[in-house]
Predict the 3D structure of the following.
Amino acid sequence: MGIAEEAHNARVVGSGQQTIVLAHGFGTDQSVWKHLVPHLVEEYRVVLYDNMGAGTTNPDYFDFQRYASLEGYAYDVIAILDELEVQSCIYVGHSVSAMIGVIASITRPHLFTKILTISASPRYLNEPDYFGGFEESELIELFEAMKSNYKSWCDGFAPLVVGGDMESVAVQEFSRTLFNMRPDIALCVAQTIFYSDVRPLLGHVTVPCHVIQSLKDLAVPVVVSEYLHQHLGGNSIVEVMSTDGHLPQLSSPDVVVPILLRHIRYNIAT
């Protein structure tokens, strides 16, 4: 097993001609794909891994300087795929990992046949001519809450982001993986994500992108999906699902899994 594979708990399941890479977002790990994976393994070779900083990774490997930008994560993706000798893949990226995949595809376009983005945003901060969903003051408040009492913050943040009450299985699952992160690492990752701005890079993307979004998502306003569609350099298509929350593959699998399978199996009509 290669260095990147081991550090990111990479594993390959299933078999098939095509490789699908499943990349999770902030506060989760590869277990977030548990409802999708069983539907893929008969047809595809599926690569799963954990982003550095996830509670399942060794915190000693987390380089605060490297992961102060999304490029650090993009280089990790490329390293994992190179070690696994993946020639090309369908990349399914949730939340921040959607933009990580977009960045990686600019560096190595031939590695990606297409990208599925779920709950993706190139910019979270509002600007005069752009609506990302957050004001600077709201982010400062969020980071202060993380610093003051991380457990309490997790308990409050999880139901807001997932949608639903604390009793739901999806909220409890997200609370668990979120709390598994070391608090200082979680803060660093959150700051990197919320202050990131991938908008200048979108026009350089040549890989086809399937932009998939919940109708109601506290972290990503639905208008952001149309922004991505308008600014991505390659072919793109948008599907807004009738789901609530930022982790629909976890909270609404009955709706989301068939949609993801359709986008995986079918290409954008040109």
Observations:
- Strands lie at 11-13, 19-23, 45-48, 89-94, 112-118, 209-216, 236-244.
